[in-house]
Amino acid sequence: MIKKYPLDELSTALGRIMGLLLTEEKVDHAVQHLSRAVRDSIPGTIGAGVSLLDPHARPVSSGSTGRIVERADAFQYELLQGPCLTAWATEESVLINDVATDGRWPSWSAAVVRLPVRSVVSTPLIAGGEAIGAMKIYADVPGAFEDSTTGLMELFAAPAATLLAHIQTSEIPERISQSLQAALYNRDLINRACGVLMERHTLSEDIALRQLMREARSSRATLSEVSAAFLGVSPERPRGSSDGLR
Amino acid sequence: MGFDSTEPEQRRRLQAALGAAQISTGDLWLYYFGIGGAVGEYEVEAYMQGLVSIPQLQRDLLAMAANELFTDHDGPRAPYSDEIDADDPPAKPDEA
Prior knowledge:
By secondary structure, chain A is an alpha+beta fold.
C-alpha cells in the first residue's frame, strides 16, 4: 500500500470545501444554460426554467429564460402550490394541458391567469434518490405539450440532476468547515500529547498513541480530553476570533 | 496480504455499530482523522467493504472514533482488537 501522508487528506478535504464554495456561482450559470437548452429543444415552448429547492421547498437557485417564467414560478413559491412543487414533492412529472381548466392548483391558476401560460410540463430533478428541484416549460396555448414531451423532459432531467446534485446551500460548506476545524484542532492536540510522551519516555509514535488510547478507554474520556488534560490545556477549541477562518 | 484473525469480526461489528447509529463512512473518517488517524478516506472506505487490511492500531482508532461519535447512542459499540477473542466464531456467520 502506498503511504499516504495526512497532508494529502487535508488538501483533499480542503479541495472538497473549495469546490462547494465555488459551485454556488457556477450553478447559476448552469441552470441558466440548461433553461435555454430546454426552451430551444422543445417546440412550442415560450419559456423554460430550472429551480433547485431546499428541503423546505424554498428555491436555492433558479434560472429561467425570461420574466414570464420568473413570475409564474414566483407565484408557486409564494402560494406554496403549483406544478413544479408537485413534481418535486411527488417525484413525478406533471403535464398540464390547460392551466385555465385544470383544477389541481386553483390559487396558482388564478394568479397566472393574466400571464401567457396555458400549457406546462414540470419534471423533477432527481439525484441520489432525492428530488433536488424541478425543470419546467411553459407554452402560451393550451394543449401544446403531450406525454412524449414529458418523456423528453425526463431525458434532459436525469443527467442535469446528476450535474447539479453537488450544488448545496451555503450553510453546508460552513458546517463542513466547522467540523474540519474541530478535526484539525483535536488532531493537533493529540499529536502534541503524543510528542510530549515520546520525548519524555523515549517512545515511538505508535506506542505513545496507544498509551493515550488506553488512558481514554480506562477513564471513559475522549482521546482529545485525555490529551488536553495531559498537556494542561482546554479540550475546547477556542471560539471567537478563530471562527473568522470561514 | 492476509487479514488478522480478529479483523473480519472487528470490521463486522464496526459496520453494525455505524449502521445502528446511522453514521456515514465519510463522517467516521473525518472524526478518525481528527483523533490522529493515518489511513486515508479511500482506504478506510475499502477497509469497511472488506477489500483491504489496515494495521491494528488504525482499526482501534476507527473503533475509538466510532465510539466517541456515538456517546449519546444506546446501540452496539465498536469493539477494540483486544476485546475480540480470535477463537470465537462470529455470532452470525451467515450475515457477513
